[in-house]
Model the fold of this input.
Amino acid sequence: MGKKTEDKNGKHKNTPSKIRLLEETASKNLLTKKGDDKTAIWIKNKHLAYEIELKKLQIELMKLQRTLKTNGGRVLAIFEGRDAAGKGGTIKRIIAHLNPRHTRVVALTKPNETEISQWYFQRYVTHLPSATEIVIFDRSWYNRSMVEPVMGFCTDEQNKRFLKDVPMVEEMLVKDGIKLFKFYFSVSKEVQNERFESRKDDPLKQFKISPVDNLAQEYWDDYSIRKFQMLSETNRTMAPWTIIRSDNKKMARVNCMKFILSQMDYEGKLPAKAFTLDPKIIISGIDELKHMEDNLMHPEKLRG
Done:
């Protein structure tokens, strides 16, 4: 499938659409021998290195899952961030080879009339991990700290109450033995806009297009303010935030996986150097707060 463009004479011509290789295609065929029925395709060395690194980390995640299955451990990972920040792509790579019987991704839609009348955390509690499970929240109760107040879906009182309550809820989860990860994917305004534009031309990304996309750019500064409030109130020692700079999606993915694995003990784990983090990609919640405090009067310098 291609798209119509005009040549220098004003005539229409079909130009082929950009083809993207599926991940792992390059690494799987690295040693393939030349043949009449084969076509050589050139890729960047850094993309090949990414595929090899990704596979190594996915194997480590499988080792982790086997250990959780043995000791009954529970893992909850919360993924937050602006639209088009790369949360979904990272989640997809994390769960790619895990046993689905012990892995769940929770992406709740807007609450119905019954859920609106409930305690705010109630509909999330039923999705918490049981023994042996890894559960990933693709957006979570933190909707009430950013999306809902910015878009007017909750009152100011509801937002303030949430920010006071959530540290206590998370403390109870951690004390009960759940290993809790809280990731905030930080994308720049320029890259977010580029990703929104790419969705319009890619038929495989059409489902991601939303009326909220344009509002995400329009309300950029409002989201920054809410992000600062969220981190200030909910970055706690027992449940800290980890910020992931995600303008480079590939590096965001591998560093997120490395962070999870570096914090867990499991059988057959590789040496610590295999999980060395890039300090330009992985930022502590405390350091992000300092960055925001230093630049509150210069919003153009704030990270996404």
In short: The beta strands are 2-6, 12-16, 74-81, 103-106, 134-138, 178-186, 241-245, 282-284.
